[in-house]
User: Fold this.
Amino acid sequence: MTLETEVQTLRQVPMFRDIDPARLKLLAFTSERVNFAEGQKFFSQGDPADAAYVILQGKADVELESVGGTIKVAELGQNAIVGEMGILSDSPRSATIVAAAPTSALRIDKRVFLELLTQFPQMSVAVMRELASRLEKMNAQLARQTRN
Amino acid sequence: MDKSLFRYIWRHSKRDQLIIFAVVLSSLPFYFASLDLPRRIVNEAIQGRAFAGGKQSAPFLEIGFGLPEWLGGARFTLFEGFQVDRLTLLFGLSALFLFFVLVNGGFKYWINLAKGALGERMLRRMRFDLFALVLRFTPEALRSVKSSETATIIKDEVEPIGGFIGDAFVLPMFLGTQALTALIFIMVQSFWLGLVAAAVVSVQFTIIPRLRRELLRLGKQRQIASRRLAGRVGEIVDGIEAVHVHNADKWERAEIGSRLYELFDIRFRIYKRKFMVKFLNNLLAQMTPFFFYAIGGYFALRGQLDIGQLVAVIAAYRELPPPLKELIDWDQQRLDVQVKYDQVVQHFSPERLLPPPDEKAAERDKGRLAGPLVVKDLRVTDPHGSVIIDGVSLTCPLPERIGIVADAGPAAGVFARIVGCRTLEYSGEVRIGEHNIAELPRGTIGRHLAYAGVEPILFPGSIRENLVYGLRHRPLGEPEEDAAEMARRLAEAKRTGNPLESINSTWIDCSLAGATDEAELDTILIDLLEQVGMRDDIYRFGLSGMVDPQKHPELAERIIEARTKLRDRLASFGMAELVEPFDRERYNRQATVGENLLFGVPTSRALMGRSLAEHAGFRDALKSENLTHDLAAMGAQIAETMVEIFRGLPQGHPLFEQFSFVAADELPEFEAIIRRHARRNGESYKGQDLTRLLALPLSYIEPRHRLGLLDESLETRLVKARNAVHERLRRDADPGVEFYDAEEVCSAAPLKDNLLFGRVSHSAANAQARITEAITGVVDELGLRPAIERVGLSHQVGPAGRMLSAPQRASVNLVRCLVKRPDILVIDGALAPFGEGHRRQLVSLLLGRSAEASLFMVLPNERETAGFDAVVRFAIGKAELIELRSGEPGGSIQEEFQAVEAAGKRVAGAVA
Assistant:
């Protein structure tokens, strides 16, 4: 898999959909490709957030650690982005991510990502749009729940 | 140093100067004889004048002299010589001529050598004297002395003075005699013409120096301006961070630019003046023949001077200008050098220096510093006259651990500096036992007292060298060197007033640290570093350090063992795929293309980084394997991608530094290369373009950069090319690469790489950390840690320790003080770079030193006095000693604090 295919994958991520291909290439080039064995952790709940990951191949589980033990709350598949909220909000990891199969992911370093956002307003706008749309969805969901 | 350069030279080189002058004088007869011989060969032997009148033989080697005609022209013969025939006379005279040529050459060689040696010896002496003066600068002078200016003085400014010294006395005497002889000869021939010549010469000697006065003034200016330039450049380099932080590049550039203009202006004015003087000088020299022809001719026509005399005078005059010119040049040089010397001496003027130390007394060791500390009426004022310490008297028993606290103000630090013998600017008396500390010899201070201030001063070199800096008071025993070489070194040192101690002797006195040999000393150092919390750093430095098999033979032997063990360990933990081992027959995908081709670590600069693409041998090998164009094409693709994705990023953006193959300012150049090539459609790259493109793929790693440029067939060809590269590089005496060999230690690679013997995977998550853990596991299993830490002690600290972090620098500074086990340790802000928790740990470490030793420590506030025996508390210039131990046994620390505070308030109240 080369840079080109990674760019294709990035384009499937809603947050990066509208970004210029050359910029996506820069984003891919400045990111690292990492392979996780099955059961290997991307990061653990409570770790400082240092990077976001885009899953290129394989799958990963989202787990929450609670008093009663770990609970799997979601599964991430190809093209999913994870950990992006943490690097934007500077808060510690809210969940643990474990590879559920041999998984390869693109590791986007926090410093590099913020550097790119400040350098290219177009990217910031795309990220903001995605965050706003997520907020909108949450609001709608909340409204639905209160109505019920 | 003497005020006058000539006095300085004369004082130190009288003997040599006189010997040279004597040799010059004794060479003169031979010189004149060799001048006379050609005439005799032609006249007497070839033309046969000696055989005039049908004589069959003529005398050869007769020795005698004749008086000039005006003294009667009598001739005295001392030795009759041998009677020889014409042919023998010719060969005899020719052989004699050859003999004189050889003798003259020999004299010349000896004189030049002696002058050169004299100059170099004086230069060595002068440099050393100046350096000795540097060590004597007063603390006040040091505030205004710039290090780079002083360095320029010692290195550059005295250099021309050294070149001049050999000629300082000999040349004027020699040339003066020559010129005077010629002048007297002219005088003898014709008094009036002699007078004319003398007049012109005296004009030359009065006007020219006058004109040169301006030249001297300018020379002085030039010297000061260039010295300041050096100082300024040094300052900027030292403070380069501030320049960048505050974006003052432009201002600094303009500043240096204007200094250069000023310098240019001065130099240009010097040139104008210099050539003007030269012109005038030549003119005057050319004027004399004019007088000779005109006036001499006039006398000749009138019959008052015969033609022969006139011709002789003109011929003699031809001999006059060269020595005169040289004499004037010498004078010019003398003035120039004198100005330089004056400037140098001014920099080291006596009021900026401490009195010269009595070396013997200074080195005397008065033994342990014990007994009570008695301070009597101590007063300190700052340079502006405000009182810092105002008549403090106190007595405290030693050894004791004493905290020093002060209200706002510098009193605590000043007191610590006084106790640490770092300053003499106080009145009153401070005694330790029977010694007044102001009179303690340096030898005692160095051995029994240690002061650690805010700024840790480290010297470039290894951590070890910095740590043992305080153990090198004097050489222990003679160095291992050839007896003849040693005799020569000592003789030279004595002749030039340099120190007799050799730097090659063993200087490190292990016993001061309580060790018997260097290995034990290393253990002590590492132990101390562990106590100050730097052991992990040292271990890491060791892993990234080089193992010199000569210095660490045992470790080097075990590296291969550890390598195998590490491989097994990785395999058994299922981590084998995290490292791709070096294999001569396989392409290492985690290593760069360049490394794969070299299959070794470059030791020569010509094979490092991008220069590899320019290396002729390497290029030959690529060519023979038909790889040049494939790699160039790869380079072009890399360049294209870089241009595409980095376009739009401003220059100097951190992402460039970190990720791009190409520096920001090179981007347009590569763009141009690609465009040029596209126009020429299909033509292959050439020359500079080719070299630049070839350099790019050399640092390419497929799994890291993922541009999809390497396929298996290319990889196979690269592995094949490895042999061609090796073969080609081995042809040179030094291949410049240390090739990888699984069974050998690669001494050019860091220890860690040697253990791994491969490259860590770029794509496996968290690989580096897991590998480091595995390495540590193996290291501990084999018990290699102490040996690796010893390698870590050789880690270089960089200029002023800049390659270490601030806490590391402070740790090294602290251990340097601890390792010599001082009787009194003064800590004045040395713990500032550490965090709160670490600092507390260090304080308890310092408090826990042996009961024999005293500690004085400046504390930030009274809350931190726990564990100290006593506190000296300063408030508004007054101080009081508060014994903390005198509190009830078992009394809580809290109570002690209260006691201290209450006492403090009492004192403060009393003063207020």
Q: What stands out?
A: Residues 886-912 of chain B have pLDDT under 50 and may be disordered. The first strand of chain B starts at residue 58 and ends at 60. Residues 249-302 of chain B form the longest helix (54 residues).
